[in-house]
Protein backbone atom coordinates (compact mmCIF):
# COMPACT_ATOMS: atom_id res chain seq x y z
CA UNK A 1 0.00 0.00 0.00
CA UNK A 2 1.34 3.44 -0.95
CA UNK A 3 1.29 6.06 1.79
CA UNK A 4 -0.84 9.10 0.96
CA UNK A 5 1.13 12.08 -0.27
CA UNK A 6 1.60 14.89 2.20
CA UNK A 7 1.32 18.56 1.43
CA UNK A 8 4.59 20.33 0.70
CA UNK A 9 5.69 22.85 3.31
CA UNK A 10 4.73 26.41 2.41
CA UNK A 11 8.31 27.61 2.82
CA UNK A 12 11.82 26.23 2.31
CA UNK A 13 15.28 27.68 3.00
CA UNK A 14 18.61 27.32 1.20
CA UNK A 15 21.69 25.98 2.98
CA UNK A 16 23.42 29.39 2.84
CA UNK A 17 20.38 31.13 4.31
CA UNK A 18 20.04 28.43 6.99
CA UNK A 19 23.69 28.89 7.96
CA UNK A 20 23.20 32.65 8.32
CA UNK A 21 19.98 32.06 10.24
CA UNK A 22 21.81 29.74 12.69
CA UNK A 23 24.44 32.44 13.33
CA UNK A 24 21.73 35.04 13.91
CA UNK A 25 19.94 32.72 16.32
CA UNK A 26 23.15 32.10 18.25
CA UNK A 27 23.49 35.87 18.61
CA UNK A 28 19.85 36.89 19.13
CA UNK A 29 17.98 33.80 20.34
CA UNK A 30 14.77 32.58 18.68
CA UNK A 31 13.81 34.44 15.51
CA UNK A 32 10.95 34.71 13.03
CA UNK A 33 10.44 35.97 9.48
CA UNK A 34 7.78 38.26 8.10
CA UNK A 35 7.58 38.41 4.30
CA UNK A 36 7.36 42.11 3.69
CA UNK A 37 5.06 43.46 1.03
CA UNK A 38 6.18 47.05 1.19
CA UNK A 39 7.83 49.16 -1.45
CA UNK A 40 10.77 50.34 0.65
CA UNK A 41 12.27 46.97 1.53
CA UNK A 42 11.68 45.29 -1.81
CA UNK A 43 9.32 42.59 -0.56
CA UNK A 44 12.11 40.89 1.38
CA UNK A 45 11.76 38.33 4.13
CA UNK A 46 12.52 40.37 7.24
CA UNK A 47 14.15 38.50 10.15
CA UNK A 48 13.34 39.64 13.69
CA UNK A 49 13.94 38.32 17.19
CA UNK A 50 10.83 36.41 18.25
CA UNK A 51 8.45 38.81 19.94
CA UNK A 52 9.95 41.96 18.39
CA UNK A 53 7.47 41.97 15.50
CA UNK A 54 3.80 41.91 16.38
CA UNK A 55 2.05 39.32 14.21
CA UNK A 56 -1.47 40.46 13.39
CA UNK A 57 -4.58 38.31 13.79
CA UNK A 58 -5.00 38.25 9.98
CA UNK A 59 -1.35 37.56 9.15
CA UNK A 60 -0.90 34.09 7.65
CA UNK A 61 1.71 31.52 8.64
CA UNK A 62 3.36 30.32 5.42
CA UNK A 63 5.25 27.69 7.34
CA UNK A 64 7.75 26.87 10.03
CA UNK A 65 11.39 26.24 9.14
CA UNK A 66 13.30 23.42 10.79
CA UNK A 67 16.94 24.35 10.34
CA UNK A 68 18.52 22.36 13.13
CA UNK A 69 18.99 22.64 16.88
CA UNK A 70 19.39 26.42 16.85
CA UNK A 71 15.82 26.83 15.57
CA UNK A 72 14.45 25.45 18.84
CA UNK A 73 11.49 23.15 19.29
CA UNK A 74 9.10 25.72 17.81
CA UNK A 75 11.20 26.19 14.67
CA UNK A 76 11.32 29.49 12.80
CA UNK A 77 7.86 30.76 11.80
CA UNK A 78 7.49 32.58 8.47
CA UNK A 79 4.58 35.04 8.26
CA UNK A 80 2.95 37.13 5.52
CA UNK A 81 0.13 39.68 5.65
CA UNK A 82 -3.35 38.35 4.92
CA UNK A 83 -3.90 40.50 1.81
CA UNK A 84 -0.47 39.60 0.40
CA UNK A 85 -1.19 35.91 1.04
CA UNK A 86 -4.48 36.17 -0.84
CA UNK A 87 -2.80 37.92 -3.77
CA UNK A 88 0.20 35.60 -4.14
CA UNK A 89 -0.43 32.26 -2.46
CA UNK A 90 -4.00 31.26 -3.24
CA UNK A 91 -5.62 29.86 -6.36
CA UNK A 92 -3.67 29.29 -9.55
CA UNK A 93 -0.81 31.59 -8.50
CA UNK A 94 0.12 29.33 -5.60
CA UNK A 95 3.86 29.03 -5.08
CA UNK A 96 6.21 27.84 -2.40
CA UNK A 97 8.41 30.50 -0.81
CA UNK A 98 12.14 29.72 -0.78
CA UNK A 99 14.28 31.92 1.48
CA UNK A 100 17.77 32.47 0.12
CA UNK A 101 20.61 34.89 0.94
CA UNK A 102 22.59 37.12 -1.42
CA UNK A 103 25.30 39.75 -1.06
CA UNK A 104 23.96 43.23 -0.56
CA UNK A 105 22.42 45.47 2.00
CA UNK A 106 19.64 43.98 4.08
CA UNK A 107 16.50 45.76 5.24
CA UNK A 108 17.10 48.37 7.93
CA UNK A 109 15.43 46.44 10.75
CA UNK A 110 16.15 42.89 9.61
CA UNK A 111 18.78 41.10 11.71
CA UNK A 112 21.09 40.31 8.78
CA UNK A 113 21.48 43.99 7.78
CA UNK A 114 24.93 44.45 9.44
CA UNK A 115 26.25 41.24 7.83
CA UNK A 116 26.64 42.65 4.30
CA UNK A 117 24.04 40.20 2.98
CA UNK A 118 20.28 40.12 2.73
CA UNK A 119 17.63 37.46 2.77
CA UNK A 120 15.85 37.10 -0.56
CA UNK A 121 12.54 35.48 -1.46
CA UNK A 122 12.39 33.12 -4.37
CA UNK A 123 9.31 31.36 -5.61
CA UNK A 124 8.99 27.71 -6.51
CA UNK A 125 6.08 26.90 -8.78
CA UNK A 126 4.03 24.08 -7.30
CA UNK A 127 2.85 21.17 -9.39
CA UNK A 128 -0.89 20.71 -9.84
CA UNK A 129 -0.79 17.77 -7.40
CA UNK A 130 1.10 19.83 -4.80
CA UNK A 131 -1.43 22.66 -5.13
CA UNK A 132 -4.30 20.27 -4.41
CA UNK A 133 -2.52 18.91 -1.33
CA UNK A 134 -1.60 22.37 -0.04
CA UNK A 135 -5.09 23.77 -0.61
CA UNK A 136 -6.48 20.97 1.57
CA UNK A 137 -4.43 22.25 4.53
CA UNK A 138 -5.97 24.78 6.90
CA UNK A 139 -4.71 28.36 6.67
CA UNK A 140 -3.17 29.32 10.02
CA UNK A 141 -3.59 32.97 10.94
CA UNK A 142 -1.95 34.92 13.74
CA UNK A 143 -5.08 34.39 15.82
CA UNK A 144 -4.99 30.63 15.17
CA UNK A 145 -1.29 30.42 16.01
CA UNK A 146 -2.00 32.20 19.32
CA UNK A 147 -4.56 29.44 20.01
CA UNK A 148 -1.91 26.77 19.40
CA UNK A 149 -2.56 25.85 15.74
CA UNK A 150 0.56 24.61 13.93
CA UNK A 151 1.25 23.35 10.39
CA UNK A 152 1.44 19.57 9.84
CA UNK A 153 4.94 19.74 8.31
CA UNK A 154 7.99 21.95 8.54
CA UNK A 155 10.08 23.55 5.84
CA UNK A 156 13.57 22.20 5.39
CA UNK A 157 16.87 23.12 3.80
CA UNK A 158 16.93 22.79 0.02
CA UNK A 159 19.68 22.96 -2.61
CA UNK A 160 18.55 25.29 -5.41
CA UNK A 161 21.09 23.75 -7.77
CA UNK A 162 19.46 20.32 -7.30
CA UNK A 163 16.49 20.62 -9.65
CA UNK A 164 15.02 17.38 -8.31
CA UNK A 165 14.97 18.88 -4.80
CA UNK A 166 13.70 22.28 -5.93
CA UNK A 167 12.10 21.96 -9.37
CA UNK A 168 10.58 25.13 -10.77
CA UNK A 169 12.44 27.51 -8.47
CA UNK A 170 12.86 30.98 -9.89
CA UNK A 171 16.43 32.24 -9.71
CA UNK A 172 17.41 35.85 -10.12
CA UNK A 173 19.69 36.49 -13.07
CA UNK A 174 23.35 36.49 -12.13
CA UNK A 175 22.68 34.44 -9.00
Brief summary of the model shown:
This protein has helices at residues 15-28, 82-88, 128-135, 142-146, and strands at 11-14, 31-35, 45-49, 60-65, 76-80, 95-103, 117-125, 157-158.
What would your notes on this structure say?
The structure is a single chain. This protein is of the alpha/beta class and 175 residues long. The chain has one domain (11-158). The chain is built from 4 helices and 8 strands; from the N terminus they run E-H-E-E-E-E-H-E-E-H-H-E. The protein has helices at 15-28, 82-88, 128-135, 142-146, and strands spanning 11-14, 31-35, 45-49, 60-65, 76-80, 95-103, 117-125, 157-158. The strands form 2 sheets. It has a 4-stranded mixed β-sheet. Strands 3-2-5-4 form a 4-stranded mixed β-sheet. The radius of gyration is 15 Å and the shape is globular.
Number of domains: 1
Determine the N-to-C terminus distance. Answer: 42 Å
Average of per-residue pLDDT values: 82
Gross morphology is globular
Tell me the fraction of residues in β-strands, as a range: 25-35%
Helix content: 10-25%
Q: Point out poorly predicted stretches.
A: 170-175
Strand order within the widest sheet? 7-6-1-8
Number of helices: 4
Structural class per helix/strand content? alpha/beta
The helix-strand sequence is EHEEEEHEEHHE
Q: How many individual β-strands? A: 8
Radius of gyration: 15 Å
